[in-house]
Amino acid sequence: MILTISIVAALVGLGFASAAAFMPDTGVDGTAGAFLAVFGALSVTVALGVLMVLSGPFRARGLLRSAAIIVSILTALAAWFLMQNIVFAAMIVSLLALVASSATAEREATL
What is the pLDDT of residues 20-61, one digit of tens each? Predict the structure, then answer.
């Protein structure tokens, strides 16, 4: 449930980052920073989608979750520098939901 909130927020961030990168007269259209924000939001969305599909105690889940957290932070930072407040807020919501899902995930011991 919490991952669903995170992926919806990442999709909102992806949509607004794409609009900022490709629509004219946004002030950041066509810049490398805007395209990095789009790539970061897309990466977070894909990572969260894979996390939703994977089940079980795979070691790759922890690595993928950590990568998604780092990319969410970096994308939020890029959006902040680009003055794209909606993308920033969406990435922060996605990050908080991802951290909350990490904290509430069931722990299973594997031998």
Answer: 999 998 889 889 999 999 999 999 999 999 988 877 667 778
The whole-angstrom separation of Cα 95 and Cα 111 is 30
CA 27, 33, 36, 41 torsion-angle sign: negative
Can you give the residue ranges of every domain in the chain?
2-12+35-104
In 3D, which of 49, 60, 69, 68 has the Cα closest to residue 110? 60
Whole-structure pTM value: 0.86
